[in-house]
Hints:
The chain has helices spanning about 45-55, 90-95, 105-115, 120-150, 155-180, 200-215, 225-230, and strands spanning about 65-70, 100-105, 220-225. By secondary structure, it is mostly helical. Helix 4 crosses helix 6.
Amino acid sequence: MERRFVGFNAKNPQRTDIPPPEVWLRNPGLQQLETPLDDRGLVDFEALVKLVRGTVDPAYDWSSPFNDRHHLQWPRRFYVDAPDDKPNPAEFRHLGIGMVRVPRLFHNWTHLITEPPAMPSFEVMQYRIDAQRVAVSLFEKVREIKRSSRARDLGQEAYRAFLTEQLYRGFDDFSHQFEIARHQPVEFQPVDYGDLELNDPADMVNIADIVAKKAIYRCAVRDICELVAA
């Protein structure tokens, strides 16, 4: 169900979910602005924030009743769900690294004031999908080992010993996935794998933690509202 709220624009009760007209520096009814892209053809979010914020009074407060997800690649109808295709445009659009969490007012205004970004090439979409899949795989392998170790309800020393044993068992598989990650095009790697070392099973945990911080939790609907409000 669509979430709705009221009370932000007393002069225009028909649209209370966008900035009020008195703070507009650009009329959304005129030609929309071109969405900025990076050299890969993907939406440049930092540049987008600067562009969108430049269309209203700099003193305007973007605070909203709630924050929600903004797919950087929109609209949805451009990215059909084609599971048998490579790439699947819908899978690309829904990647965590392609979504951000923004104030609802900013979200709505962005869709009014900017044009839908051009679709990237199929090659770029597939590289992006592959990069996210490998990052998730590295993270999941270590997370599952940790889960299975904790499920045994062992004492601290026994837990560490069992965890180490399971890491050794999974080392070859993890190493294979890590090599795949390192050989992906650098410009699509969500983590700089070249700076990471995998010499023994203990390194698996460190790598998984870095991947989780930079490519999973941070990118899976990144909460960067402070960038919008700054």
